[in-house]
Design a protein that fits this description.
CATH class of chain A: Mainly Alpha
Helix content of chain B: over 70%
Number of strands of chain A: 0
Order of helices and strands of chain A: HHHHHHHHHHHHH
Strand content of chain A: under 5%
Number of helices of chain A: 13
Shape of chain B: globular
Largest sheet of chain B: none
Distance between the termini of chain A: 46 Å
Mean pLDDT of chain B: 83
Distance between the termini of chain B: 38 Å
Oligomer: heterodimer
CATH architecture of chain A: Orthogonal Bundle
Low-confidence stretches of chain A: 286-308
Strand content of chain B: under 5%
Largest interface: A-B, 70 and 61 residues
Mean pLDDT of chain A: 80
CATH topology of chain A: ABC transporter involved in vitamin B12 uptake, BtuC
Shape of chain A: globular
Amino acid sequence: MSWLIAPGFSTSAPVHVALVVGGVVAVITALVGVFTVVRGQSFAGHALSDIGTAGGSGAVLVGVPTLLGYVTMNLAAVGVMEVIGIRRPRGRDVATGIVLGASLGLASLFLYLDTTSTNASGATVNVLFGSIFTISGGTIPVVAGLGLVSVALIAVVYRPLLLSSVSDDLARAKGVAVRRVGLAFLASLAIAVSLSAITIGAILSTALLIGPAAAALKLTRRTGTAIGLAAVLGMAATWLGILLAYDSASWSNGGQGWPASFCIVLVVFVVYLVAAWASRFTGRRRDPAPGVPDPVAGGRTPVAAGNG
Amino acid sequence: MFAPSMVTTWEASAVVAVVAGVVGFFTVLRGSAFAAHALPNGAFAGAAGASLIGASELVGLGVFALGGALTIAALGRRARNDVATALTIVVMLGLGDLFLSRTTEYAQEIYALLFGEVLGVSGAEVVPTLCIAAVCLGAVLVLYRPLLLSSVAPEVAEARGIRTGRMDLAFLVVLALTTTAAVPVVGSLLIFSLLIGPPAAAGAVTRRPPVAMALSAVIALVTVWSAIALAFAADLPVGFFVGTISAVVYALGRVWATWGPGRAETRPVTVRPPYDPEPVDTFG
């Protein structure tokens, strides 16, 4: 077995925490990610992981927990995006961009003040990249708790959210409060992204949010199945990536291993490519027949879908 | 602030601002803000890789920016653009993480690449920036009509024989070149703010494309120069001022569009395809 799993893998405490936290985060983000991909809000999903950096570095500055800074900043950010106009596809693009630009500006200010006041030069790298192997075991309950809030928000609005994701107009005609449902989803996204960005870093947050969900939606049309499949793919990719990162240290003689973020991203990307390739044989085409609402295209006009 | 050593800074940032204003006009029009974020942000991985093998930072940036543009275009053919962009940026950043783990010296420079070091621009750095910027402006000028039509009304463009897929790719390549020219000077954060804020503000004020493009370049220039002056005076990061001023300018643009004079004229650019009675709203 040692060729497959390097010695010490099953007894290392950081590896255990990484497996548990990574697995939990992968499942939560897979659920949120399926809706993110269907609704065409990948940009917002990624932007929030960067926007949270402003909250995180601001929290360091005033001395409150980083996670609190992340969640507060992200919830405020989705509120502003909603006000600017995240409903229309193109307005959404600009709204996300403006909020992201302003937040990155704030982050640069806070990071600058952090480094001049505390002289911690590594702060930038830590906030931006995170590391799955440096999570302390004590964060597991916090991660699980916040994850539950995020999942519960989606569960409450599941049906109307699904309907409004496939067709906004249809949902409105059926009396769904489309804006409120959309805002509930964004709040759930904000919490999920804060949680994953702070534990596993901004890169992995986006990778696990979009990759498994997009791969699952290549393979199945049914949202329920896609969520389950995305959760399995996300968790498998995370664990395989962690194993790869752990093993890679033993491949070069006493040398440095590959970073876990890189390994997990690599696995997620390969999973997506394989799913995209396999979708050729399942007849799951990108463009649906006229009149058939395609969950991936979000039922929008081609003008909007092509530029999401 | 106006010492001879600062002249290069003013010049380089002016060049970058004008290119960002012009290219940004199409970025906002096409709804490509995510790509405008992904390419500069991911390209830093190329700079890190280049320093690892001892190559020029500019070459690393260029290779990664162009590679990212091609990946987005290739993945985007069979998936939604935003999904393709998200996957591309995480792969680029993942590679960046790998490169950074191989070296201990580069950590200090990440901050500079992400947030810019406008005040430390040297004369030698301006020449490549100037050349690439000229290529970008030339490309936008040559592609102006087909790019505009394919951005505003893809179906009409297709009907007239314009390959929208190729326009997509061409635009992404221009965006990659803009990235390469701008990141060493202003950093990836600043270039993103400049690609979105000023054009969105200009788009809210006027709907006539050439006017909006010129206005966007002017706003970008004013934004950068005032940000540098403020950063110099207050001794705070330039990125903070560029990000904030961009957002404020955009907010003012929206206020102008809603309550300003000549409101009746500020209708959306309307392209009426023969089969579609609904005007296409080109701006958010």
